[in-house]
């Protein structure tokens, strides 16, 4: 009698979640499709039914990172009493996401697939929408500048160059500078 085959309800999502867990626990360099399959409890060939190779799985992990980060920033925005406070909470949330998910955070900016690029654009749109609420913005360049600054200070924090508190303070200063540069 053959053993029953294991069937997984949503294998792609489970593989992505397992990859995120493995990256957080052991680092990006240790990730293999075999390790991800083992963590999920499927055959070592099962991931290949959904991801052609490791780079395709990593692109999905990057996409998921943008989705989670955008969701976090939207929650911060909608829970704040003013647009200015929303931006402040978003800045802190951005730094916190980098601190909590450092390897996924680093991976996000290396993914070049179209799906991840679209998700990254949604993150930029979220920042831009909050800047619009401040009332004097007309260009999405300000959102890119704010995002670039947040990303830079978060990266410096991950490199150990600045503390978490300093990174959050610098991210906050980016907002002040962006608002000061707005026309009007």
What does this structure look like?
The longest helix is centred in the middle third of the chain and has 25 residues, at 54-78. Helix content is 71%, strand content 0%. The relative contact order is 0.11. Mean pLDDT is 88; it is low at 1-5. It has two domains: 8-51, Homeodomain-like (Arc Repressor Mutant, subunit A, Orthogonal Bundle); 59-181, Tetracycline Repressor, domain 2, CATH 1.10.357. It is elongated, with a radius of gyration of 19 Å. It is built from eight helices and no strands. It is mostly helical.
Strand content: under 5%
Number of helices: 8
Radius of gyration: 19 Å
* Class of secondary structure makeup: mainly alpha
Mean pLDDT: 88
What sort of overall outline do the alpha carbons produce when their principal axes are compared? elongated
Point out poorly predicted stretches.
1-5
CATH class of the largest domain: Mainly Alpha
Helix content: over 70%
CATH 2nd-level architecture of the largest domain: Orthogonal Bundle
- Count of DSSP strands: 0
Distance N to C terminus: 77 Å
CATH topology grouping of the largest domain? Tetracycline Repressor, domain 2
CATH H level, superfamily name of the largest domain: Tetracycline Repressor, domain 2
- How many separate domains? 2
Gist of the model:
By secondary structure, the chain is mainly alpha-helical. It is 71% helix and 0% strand. It folds into two domains: 8-51, Arc Repressor Mutant, subunit A (Orthogonal Bundle); 59-181, Tetracycline Repressor, domain 2 (Orthogonal Bundle), CATH 1.10.357.
């Amino acid at each position: 009698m053959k053993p029953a085959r294991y069937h997984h309800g949503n294998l792609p999502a489970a593989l992505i979640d397992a990859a995120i867990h493995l990256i957080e626990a052991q680092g990006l360099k240790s990730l293999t499709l075999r390790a991800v399959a083992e963590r999920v409890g499927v055959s070592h060939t099962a991931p290949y039914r959904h991801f052609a190779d490791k780079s395709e799985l990593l692109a999905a992990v990057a996409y998921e990172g943008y989705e989670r980060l955008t969701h976090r920033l939207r929650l911060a925005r909608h829970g704040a009493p003013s647009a200015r406070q929303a931006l402040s909470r978003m800045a802190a949330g951005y730094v916190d996401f980098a601190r909590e998910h450092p390897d996924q955070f680093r991976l996000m900016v290396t993914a070049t697939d179209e799906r991840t690029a679209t998700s990254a654009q949604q993150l930029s749109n979220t920042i831009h929408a909050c800047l619009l609420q401040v009332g004097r913005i007309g260009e999405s360049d300000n959102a890119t500048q704010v995002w670039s600054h947040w990303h830079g200070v978060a990266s410096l924090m991950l490199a150990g160059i600045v503390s978490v508190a300093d990174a959050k303070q610098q991210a906050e200063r980016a907002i002040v500078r962006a608002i000061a540069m707005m026309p009007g």
